[in-house]
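Why do we bother with a discrete structure alphabet at all? Because it lets us treat a fold like text: something you can write down, compare, and reason about line by line. To make this less abstract, here is a complete entry for Tripartite motif-containing protein 37. Read it the way you would read a sentence in a foreign language you are learning: slowly, and without expecting to understand everything at once.
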Amino acid sequence: MAEKQFTKSANTAKDDQDTRLQFLEHFDDIFKCTICLIKLQDPHLCPRCSKLYCYDCISEWLLMNCPESEQHMKCPNCKLDLQLDKLVKVRWFDEVEKLQQRNQNGVLEPSCSSAKPSTSSKRDICPKHQHTINFFCCTCRLCVCDECLPEMHLDHTFKCLDVIYTSNVQIAEEEFEKLRHYLKKIGQLVEKVDRNVELVKKVKEEKLREIRAIAESAIEGLERQVGEKLQKLQGHKFALLAEIQDIEKSLRHMEAEVATSSRSAFLAKKSKIFKECNKIRMNPIKDFKQIRVPVSLKIEIPTIYETGIFVIENFSSFDDNKMAYSNEFSDNFGHIWRIMVWCVISEDQLGIYLELVDGNPCWMECRFQLIHPEPKKIIHKKIKQFFDGGTQKDWGFRDFVTLGTILDDNYLKEDDSLELLYHIRPCPAAAATAAGCSGVSE
């Protein structure tokens, strides 16, 4: 089927070529002066009948045959009134003549005579004259055949149809290429949106992990508090039970003495028995307020980290001492922060720093993670530092990772970016006192 279509297309192209060649070979017969019957020179046509004349021929004929008055000049063909200033110059004749000359010299433009099959299997046929359409009227913006030229497009400008077609196909291809480039940019934007979604989900997982850790820590704190309170209450209970046991033992002993003694013996022992009872009762019973334990429990929740991901773009283009900054972000205490990375190629180091943009001086705990597809290769570093808004480059890691490690271990993403996960939160004053210096890294 494909071979048949190609053969048909090739035959159509050959027919078009033959038609063009026949037209150009009979050029002198078609375009000859109606008066001198030879090739046209400076062709003009009658606006009434469209017959072609050499300008000199028609001028001389009108002057010789109608000498009395210009008002009585008539066309030699249609015999209708015709004045010299009403003659129409045939502007398209030069274009057609050039094609005929190229055909005679054997250098007819491939665009007009090539046997290469057209991309379309349909021939361009004039619906009025049933001739092959070979020209494009630049004035009317219409495709026309050779018969249309003198009939409907007087004094117009023309070009070879194949030349116009090829030129516009090329323009269309350029526009399509621009559109493909536009689509590529949209596709890249979609990829960035997808990556943004992944990063948001990753931060969500980090926050969920932090919340779970906080919940587990809070539960452990509750269990510890409850254990301490119950242990204290159990101690009070055991002491009271031991006291009850001792009193019951003494009571049984005294009751047995009374039951087994004679009247005279009881009377002899009564002072001792009464004294023993009084001694027991003289021990004060503890007030419950003294031994009760408060039933309140404290939930110990640490300060939550401010978590985010700083995407360092176009990393391979960084020069020596290049610095890049994240967007500013705030914590729950009114501080404004940003992350800075410092690429020192001469020392093969990438430094990472936290900067206090606005807010009161404070101690902060900072955790940085350089993300890698393999969890074992994720680089973790943690530091506690005091921030007062002064020089920033002492507040971080000058040697967080070597540039060689980044390149050799594939930390760079396909889009030439690094992803840095950060966690920051205020550090308790006690930790700052225990640190005893401006910064402690772990």
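What the structure line is telling us, in plain words: Residues 1-10, 107-121, 432-441 have pLDDT under 50 and may be disordered. The chain has eleven helices and 16 strands.
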